[in-house]
Design a protein that fits this description.
It catalyses: alpha-D-ribose 1-phosphate = D-ribose 5-phosphate; 2-deoxy-alpha-D-ribose 1-phosphate = 2-deoxy-D-ribose 5-phosphate. The chain has 390 residues and is α/β, with parallel strands linked by helices. It folds into 2 domains: 5-94 and 214-388, 3-Layer(aba) Sandwich (Alkaline Phosphatase, subunit A), CATH 3.40.720; 106-212, Alpha-Beta Plaits (2-Layer Sandwich), CATH 3.30.70.1250. The protein has 13 helices and 14 strands. The chain has an 8-stranded mixed beta sheet with strand order 10-9-11-1-12-13-2-14.
C-alpha cells in the first residue's frame, strides 16, 4: 500500500475541452475551462501548480508544477453527475438513463399522485430558480409540490418549507424513488429542492437531497469498507452513491463547507486509512446551469484560494486527486451539461516528480488506482496509474 489515505475532490462540472464523442451529444467545441478563461482570465495559481495549465486550455503563465496531471474521458452513455461518479468507482453506465424532453407522461404523474398522496403543479423542463419564482404563489395557494425536470435524467420536487415541511418533502422524494420512478421511468436521480423566502425573493436552501437509483455493479466504496477501510463522503457524495459502502457521510450546503469538512476530517481523523471524497457542487448548480461566466470564474478562484491552505495540510502518506464528473460550459447553448474530458490532477508531498499521466480512456482509472493502492481486486473497468507516479 503506497498511501494510507486518498482524498478525492470532484469539482462538479469543470470540464477541460470537448470529448472525442462530443458531437453525438451536441457538444462539439464545448470547453468549460477554456471558454471561461477566454472571457475572464483565471487566477488559479494553486491549480496551476498541480498541473492544470498542462491539460486545460487556459492562458499560459510561468509556473513550477508540483503535481502530476492528465485528462480522463468518459465511456458512460451520459454526461451527468451519476454517470460520471459511478464510472469513477468502476460502474460505467452502459444504457442512458431516461430523460423527458416533453416533460413527464400522464401515467408517471398519476403514479406520483397515487403513491405520495399529493397532486402537483409544473411538470415542465425548467430552471429551478425560475420555476419556484413563477409557480411559488400557486404553490402557496394550492399546497401542491412543484414538479419539473431538465435535460438530465432527474425528477425534481420543489416545496417551500412553510408549505411542505422539509421532512415531508424528503418523504415524498423517497416514495418517488422507490415506488414511482421505476421500470422505464427509473431516472438517475430524484432531487428534493426546498426553498424559503417570499414572492420575488424565493431562495433555494442548502437542504437539497438527491435520491440516486441503485447501481447494478459493486463499486469501490463497498470493496474498501468490506476490507475495513474508512470511506467518508462529503457533500453530495452520499446521495450520489445511495450511501452504499460509506462508513461516514457529511452533508454540506456549498463549496466552502465542503472544504471545511475536508480539512476537519484530515485533522481529526488523521490515522484513518481509506478514502475521503467530496463533491464541490457550486460550480455546476450556481453558475454552469445558469450560464454565469463571471460567477463561475469567481467560484473557481475562491476554490483555488482555499485549495492553497489544503495543500499545506496533506501529509506524505496521503494522496490528493482533483477531477470533475462532466463539463458545463457556461458559454454554451442551453443549460445542459457538456460532454467533455476532465482534468486529472494528482499530488502528494511524498512524490518527487511531476508526471504526465496522458489521456485516460475511462474515468474508472481513478477507481482502479484506489483499489490498487489498497491491494484490492474485483473491478471490471479501469487501469491504475499508481505505478506511474514518482
Amino acid at each position: 500500500m503506497k498511501f494510507n489515505r486518498i482524498i478525492v475532490i470532484v469539482t462538479d462540472s469543470v470540464g477541460a475541452g470537448a470529448a472525442p464523442d462530443a458531437e453525438k451529444f451536441g457538444d462539439k467545441g464545448a470547453d468549460t475551462y477554456g471558454h471561461i478563461d477566454a472571457n475572464v482570465p483565471l487566477s488559479v495559481p494553486n491549480l496551476r501548480r498541480l498541473g492544470l495549465g498542462r491539460v486545460a486550455h487556459i492562458h499560459a503563465e510561468a509556473t513550477d508544477v508540483i503535481g502530476s496531471y492528465g485528462l480522463m474521458q468518459e465511456i458512460s452513455a451520459g454526461k451527468d453527475t451519476t454517470s460520471g461518479h459511478w464510472e469513477f468507482m468502476g460502474n460505467p453506465v452502459e444504457n442512458p438513463f431516461p430523460t423527458f424532453p416533453d416533460a413527464f407522461p400522464p401515467d408517471l404523474l398519476k403514479a406520483f399522485t397515487e403513491k405520495t398522496g399529493y397532486g402537483y403543479i409544473g411538470n415542465e423542463i425548467a430552471s429551478g430558480t425560475e420555476i419556484i419564482e413563477r409557480l411559488g404563489p400557486e404553490h402557496f395557494r394550492t399546497g401542491l409540490p412543484i414538479v419539473y425536470t431538465s435535460a438530465d435524467s432527474v425528477f425534481q420536487i420543489a416545496a417551500h418549507n412553510d408549505v411542505i415541511p422539509l421532512e415531508e418533502l424528503y418523504r415524498i422524494c423517497d416514495i418517488t424513488r422507490r415506488e414511482v420512478c421505476v421500470g422505464p421511468y427509473e431516472v438517475g436521480r430524484i432531487i428534493a429542492r426546498p426553498f424559503v423566502g417570499t414572492q420575488g425573493h424565493f431562495v433555494r436552501t442548502g437542504d437539497r437531497r438527491d435520491y440516486s437509483r441503485l447501481p447494478k455493479r459493486k463499486m469501490v466504496f463497498s470493496y474498501l469498507s468490506e476490507a475495513g477501510y474508512a470511506v467518508v463522503g462529503v457533500g453530495k457524495i452520499g446521495d450520489i452513491y445511495a450511501h452504499i459502502g460509506l462508513t461516514e457521510s457529511y452533508h454540506t450546503a456549498n463549496n466552502h463547507e465542503d472544504m471545511e469538512a475536508l480539512r476537519t476530517q484530515l485533522a481529526v481523523h488523521r490515522k484513518d486509512k481509506g478514502l475521503l471524497m467530496a463533491n464541490f457542487v457550486d460550480f455546476d448548480s450556481m453558475y454552469g446551469h445558469r450560464r454565469n461566466v463571471k460567477g463561475y470564474a469567481d467560484c473557481l478562484e475562491a476554490f483555488d484560494q482555499e485549495l492553497g491552505q489544503l495543500l499545506t495540510e496533506i501529509h506524505d502518506d496521503e494522496l490528493l486527486v482533483i477531477t470533475s464528473d462532466h463539463g458545463n460550459d457556461p458559454t454554451w447553448h442551453g443549460t445542459d451539461h457538456t460532454r467533455e474530458r476532465v482534468p486529472l490532477l494528482v499530488y502528494s508531498p511524498a512524490l518527487k516528480a511531476s508526471v504526465d499521466l496522458g489521456i485516460r480512456q475511462t474515468y474508472a482509472d481513478l477507481g482502479m488506482t484506489i483499489m490498487d493502492n489498497f491491494g484490492l481486486t474485483g473491478l471490471e473497468f479501469g487501469t491504475s496509474f499508481l505505478s506511474e507516479l514518482r
